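Input C-alpha cells:
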C-alpha cells in the first residue's frame, strides 16, 4: 500500500467499519497491497471484510463489482455472497483525516483452501477445473446487465496503470514506447458478445480456493470490460512466473503447453472459445508484464524491494524491452 494511504488507515477507522457490519473486534489481516483485507468474525463465524481507499476505486466502482458478483452467484457460480451492513448498505463509507474516503464491504469466506503452485494438487485436474470455472464465468457474463442505479463497470483501457509514463522510471523510454505499442494493438481488436464482456481479470491461484472438486473464486477488484482471452492468459502467466525461473525457458514453454491444453479442455466444457484466442493470449501475456511493472513501481518504493522482487522486475523489463511474452504460444 502506498505510504500516503497507509498513513490514513487508522485503528479507529477499522473499528468503525467493524461496528457498522456488526462484527467482533478481533481481526486477522490477510492483505494490504491494493486493498486492506481482513478475516473478521460474527458469533465466531468467519467473514471477509475489505476496505478500499478512494484513490484506488470510487464507491460506484465498488458497487458495480458487487452487482456483477451477485449476478454470477445467481447463475450458480461459486463466488462469495455479499452481506449488507447493519444499516442495510452493501458499501459503507468513512472519511479519513484528509477528507478522502474508505469504502468497506463484507463477503462470505470462500470454501476450500489455497493451492500452492509447487504442491501435488497443482496438476492437470486442477487446470481443467480452473478452465471450466473461467468458461462458466464468461458464459454467465454474456447475460449480465447492470442493476438499476448501478454505474457500468469500467473498461480495461480506463485503468490508470496503462498510463505507463507515470510509473515507469524516466530513463526507460524504450519500455514506455513498447508498452504503448502493445496497448495500441489490443485496442484494435474486434469486440463482440462472444469474446468481450466483464471478466474477473486476475484469476491466478492466489485468488481462489479449491476443495478437491470445485474452485471458489474471490477478489473481484480488477473486474472490468475486457476480452475473454485475457482471463485465460492471466492464469497461465502467474502459474509460470511463480513456478519456473526465467533461466529455464524450455521448461516454461513445456509447462505452458501442458497447462494451457488442460485449461482449454476445461474451458470448452462451459463456453465456446473466442475466435483468434491464441493470437490474443500472446498480447495479453505481454499486457500483464506491462501492468505488473507499473503497479510494482507504484506500490513498492525502491528501498522496500528485496532481491527476489528486483530480479523479477528486471526479468519483466527485459521482456518488455524485447517485445516477448513470458511463454511461447504455438
Amino acid at each position: 500500500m502506498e505510504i500516503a494511504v497507509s498513513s490514513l488507515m487508522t485503528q479507529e477507522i477499522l473499528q468503525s467499519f467493524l461496528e457498522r457490519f456488526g462484527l467482533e473486534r478481533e481481526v486477522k489481516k490477510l492483505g494490504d497491497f491494493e486493498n486492506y483485507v481482513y478475516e473478521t468474525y460474527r458469533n465466531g463465524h468467519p467473514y471477509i471484510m475489505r476496505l478500499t481507499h478512494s484513490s484506488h476505486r470510487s464507491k460506484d466502482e465498488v458497487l458495480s463489482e458487487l452487482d456483477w458478483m451477485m449476478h454470477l452467484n445467481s447463475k450458480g457460480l461459486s463466488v462469495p455472497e455479499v452481506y449488507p451492513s447493519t444499516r442495510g448498505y452493501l458499501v459503507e463509507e468513512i472519511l479519513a483525516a484528509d477528507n478522502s474516503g474508505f469504502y468497506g464491504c463484507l463477503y462470505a469466506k470462500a470454501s476450500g483452501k489455497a493451492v500452492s503452485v509447487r504442491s501435488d494438487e497443482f496438476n492437470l485436474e486442477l487446470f481443467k477445473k480452473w478452465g471450466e470455472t473461467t468458461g462458466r464465468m464468461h458464459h454467465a457474463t454474456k447475460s449480465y446487465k447492470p442493476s438499476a442505479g448501478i454505474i457500468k463497470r469500467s473498461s480495461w483501457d480506463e485503468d490508470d496503470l496503462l498510463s505507463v509514463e507515470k510509473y515507469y522510471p524516466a530513463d526507460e523510454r524504450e519500455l514506455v514506447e513498447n508498452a504503448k505499442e502493445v496497448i495500441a494493438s489490443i485496442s484494435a481488436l474486434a469486440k463482440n458478445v462472444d469474446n468481450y464482456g466483464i471478466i474477473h481479470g486476475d484469476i491466478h491461484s492466489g485468488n481462489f480456493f479449491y476443495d478437491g472438486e470445485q474452485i471458489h473464486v474471490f477478489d473481484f477488484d480488477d473486474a472490468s470490460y475486457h476480452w475473454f482471452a485475457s482471463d485465460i492468459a492471466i492464469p497461465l502467466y502467474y502459474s509460470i512466473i511463480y513456478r519456473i525461473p526465467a533461466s529455464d525457458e524450455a521448461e516454461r514453454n513445456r509447462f505452458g503447453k501442458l497447462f494451457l491444453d488442460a485449461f482449454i479442455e476445461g474451458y470448452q466444457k462451459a463456453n465456446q472459445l473466442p475466435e483468434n484466442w491464441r493470437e490474443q493470449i500472446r498480447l495479453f501475456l505481454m499486457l500483464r508484464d506491462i501492468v505488473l511493472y507499473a503497479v510494482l513501481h507504484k506500490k513498492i518504493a525502491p528501498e522496500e524491494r528485496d532481491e527476489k522482487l528486483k530480479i523479477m522486475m528486471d526479468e519483466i523489463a527485459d521482456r518488455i524491452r524485447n517485445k516477448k511474452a513470458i511463454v511461447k504460444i504455438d
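The longest strand covers residues 45-53. Residues 124-322 form a domain with the Aminoglycoside 3'-phosphotransferase; Chain: A, domain 2 fold (CATH 3.90.1200.10).
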